[in-house]
Amino acid sequence: MNVGIIGLGLMGGSFAKALKRYSIAEKVYGYARSEKSKEEIIELNLVDEIVDIKTLKDNCDLIVLAIPVDNIISMLPEFLDISSNTTIMDLGSTKEFIVNNVPSKIRKNFIAAHPMTGTEKSGPKAAIDDLYEGRTVVLCNLEDNENIHVNRAFKVFQEIGMRIVVMDANEHDIHACYMSHLPHAISYSLANTVMGHEDPKSIIALAAGGFKDMSRIAKSSPEMWTDIFKQNRKNLLKSIDLFEEHMKKVRQMVEEEDYSDLKQWMKKANTLHEIL
Ligand SMILES: NC(=O)C1=CN([C@@H]2O[C@H](COP(=O)(O)OP(=O)(O)OC[C@H]3O[C@@H](n4cnc5c(N)ncnc54)[C@H](O)[C@@H]3O)[C@@H](O)[C@H]2O)C=CC1
Ligand SMILES: O=C(O)C(=O)Cc1ccc(O)cc1
């Protein structure tokens, strides 16, 4: 099997590494837009060859879109003339808007996937060897796909050591919002709150583990996350409203010195880690 990867940053670059590690592809082709990315991809030896989109389409059994979620949608018309045997797969963090915007001509070929693994880093240098190992990938709306493409996706994800979960795209976006998109909104808010109040010297001198843990994902790519917030806007707004209710509640308990209720509220939060 030949695989083509469009976008060789954290997700695409790590996918290329996993394919090599498990000898899954005969040849891995890459497509990158900027000269800087191309240089980095060659230097890091992420793919066998960097090619244009036509070469990818003519030579690959599987084409992986590992680019920001709005770019995934704008790129889809490029694939209207692909062979019915070629699988296209995206790795985007949102799913419903994407599946609803796949042109009907290639809907059977298009596998909507979301690997539930990543980091706050981006670009080719962020690619890591074992990003996918032992992690979960969510595949959405597989009833819209032809079997050849579903089987190919299952085979590749299993071979790189992933656990597969199948879900409706709408349901996926709700879960992804609470487990990932809301935490990113909170982390960005925390970072901006602290920077608006503390000077850099105090931040360096006093930042402890908790603050570092909670602000790590505030380093994530604004290009990628603006698109995600845009595509999952409805769920994100609802989750922010629910989160604000909790912030109001803790504020009120502290203001009214209601420490017994505060302790109960904290104890309830502690139980999350009995599940995790
Ligand atoms: N970062 C993470 O932890 C995770 C990201 N995702 C999703 O994976 C996708 C890729 O994210 P990352 O790899 O983290 O981003 P990244 O920023 O590390 O890599 C994306 C690469 O694609 C390139 N690119 C952008 N538009 C392009 C286009 N039209 N043609 C060719 N190259 C293009 C960029 O220059 C960049 O090198 C996104 O859709 C994101 O939502 C999914 C799970 C985890
Ligand atoms: O860095 C982290 O902890 C993440 O949460 C990474 C991440 C980012 C986006 C996703 O769609 C999935 C995972």
Helical content, roughly? 40-55%
The CATH homologous superfamily of the largest domain: NAD(P)-binding Rossmann-like Domain
- Measured between the Cα atoms of the first and last residue, the distance is 37 Å
Question: What's the architecture of the largest domain in CATH terms?
Answer: 3-Layer(aba) Sandwich
Describe the largest sheet. 8 strands, mixed
**Heterogens:** 1,4-dihydronicotinamide adenine dinucleotide, 3-(4-hydroxy-phenyl)pyruvic acid
CATH topology description of the largest domain: Rossmann fold
Number of strands: 8
Number of domains: 2
Average pLDDT, all residues? 97
Mass-distribution shape:
globular
The CATH top-level class label of the largest domain: Alpha Beta
Catalytic activity: prephenate + NAD(+) = 3-(4-hydroxyphenyl)pyruvate + CO2 + NADH
Family: Belongs to the prephenate/arogenate dehydrogenase family.
InterPro entries: 6-PGluconate_DH-like_C_sf (IPR008927), NAD(P)-bd_dom_sf (IPR036291), PDH_C (IPR046825), PDH_N (IPR046826), Preph/Arog_dehydrog (IPR050812), Prephen_DH (IPR003099)
Keywords: Amino-acid biosynthesis, Aromatic amino acid biosynthesis, NAD, Oxidoreductase, Tyrosine biosynthesis
